Amino acid sequence: MSATGQSARAPGAPAPKRTLPGDGVPASSYFARLYKPRMSLFWWLSKPSYAAFVLRELSSVFVAWFVVYLLLLARAVGLGQAEYERFLDLSAQPWMIGLNGLTLAFVLYHAITFINLTPQAMVLDLRGRRVPGPLITLGVYVSWLVVSAALAWLVVG
Prior knowledge:
mainly alpha; 3 helical TM bundles of succinate and fumarate reductases; 65% helix
């Protein structure tokens, strides 16, 4: 590229020909390059795989809200009893319960789709043989269940 932004070409070489309507190129091929069809806002609903992908991406927003909510809880606990009570009052509002219920659904969807993709991202060899994908997935689900049961036992007693 030269300083003017044009491609460098050999001295004396002819300039590249532009294809414009009327230069012997059919107008339909010229305008076909310019045609950009309008996409519906809901294009992703046309196939279940598109919808699953977009919902997984959207679930990241709810994962972020979950982190913010837990940070706000930790902050309220750190600021004392009065602030913690205010946080509990806010958490008891119907809209907050609804938002956190929706968040739970999306976080579970995010976790399940992540676990289901684990065999594609992680290859395990055991004694020179590859561990089958469904066995890896089952191992992650069992681990999730064991950790969840241990946490429930710690919290509930």
